[in-house]
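To: structure desk
From: M.T.
Subject: fold request, one chain
Message: Could you run this one when you get a chance? Sequence is below, nothing fancy, just the single chain.
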Amino acid sequence: MDADRLAAVDAVVVGGGPNGLAAAIEVARAGRSVVLFEAASTVGGGSRSAELTLPGFVHDVCSSIHTFGRTAPFFAGIDLEARGLRWVDAPAALGHPLDDGTAVMVRGGVERTAASLGDSADTDAYRRLFGPLVDDWETLLPDLLAPFHVPLAPLRALRLARFGLVGIRSATSVARRFRGDRARALVAGVMAHSILGLTEPISAAAGIVLLAGAHADGWPFPEGGAGRVPDLLSAELRSLGGRIVVERRIHTYADLPPHRVAIFDVVPRRLAAIAGERLPAGYRRALERYRHGAGIFKLDLAIYGAIPWTAAELAGAGTVHLGGTLEEIARSERLVATGREPERPFVLLTQTSLFVRTRAP
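Reply: Done. Structure tokens follow.
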């Protein structure tokens, strides 16, 4: 299908990643006509799965663990389970091994993890930090995931302020609330998900949300791989009357059919290239100057048998953080933030095939 052969629509969406699919579904839910364009042969962006190593091994191309897959307001409003999606929960959301042969495990609620930290002061500090967040999770999460807006109702403002007082701080300053290596390493490993230097302001925020989410609802993943999510979102969009055009790269605004609203799920420079002449000059220049942050290197492995962890309980973790102590993680992330490669990088490891037999032979 060519864009110039499509009839006029209320909205066009350029980019078929999870955000583009979600935007198109919201438009279609409102009873408006919408068409989504994706340059690749399939939608999904970073949420896709493929046999990347050997036949029978299903790897996630980018995203794997979906912390907010069941609890984000958008997903909570779509019954993907009715379309066949099954979320899988490992016995432990997370494991963090240490050089002494032990591991810190995140299982279930705040209390269970707090009690495993091995220091009574750290147990109390962990409860104080994460207990209120998890208690308010259902009402707090929609505001955390939404654009900031004012005015806020007093209680909502209070909840966000309480989170913000901690989230605005650096990861190292929050981790140093704890005395022992176990608690410090656990907190630092989750906060390293931000891909920021751990001494930078706001580097604590993402980790606090992720760890609170692990206690509130675990870190689930789709049974058939990350690609199941965009597959089912595509089915939802089509059932609402939306259209999807794949293998169609939008080069200029003229490539789009007549429409009232255009929504873009693309990188900043691509937006500038497509719609630059329609954008305010200052905004266009900002898009063109946009500098991406540090990236990641991903390695897919097909192995024979399970990983022989020294700490046997790690075999029950969907995600394992390999990075050692707070100081070691902070050192490696500082090098990444300054454009250098650490000899001992912080590694996020997922082992989903232990809990879904269809993902490996």
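Reply (cont.): The chain has two domains: 3-64+225-289, 89-222+297-359. Let me know if you need anything else for the meeting.
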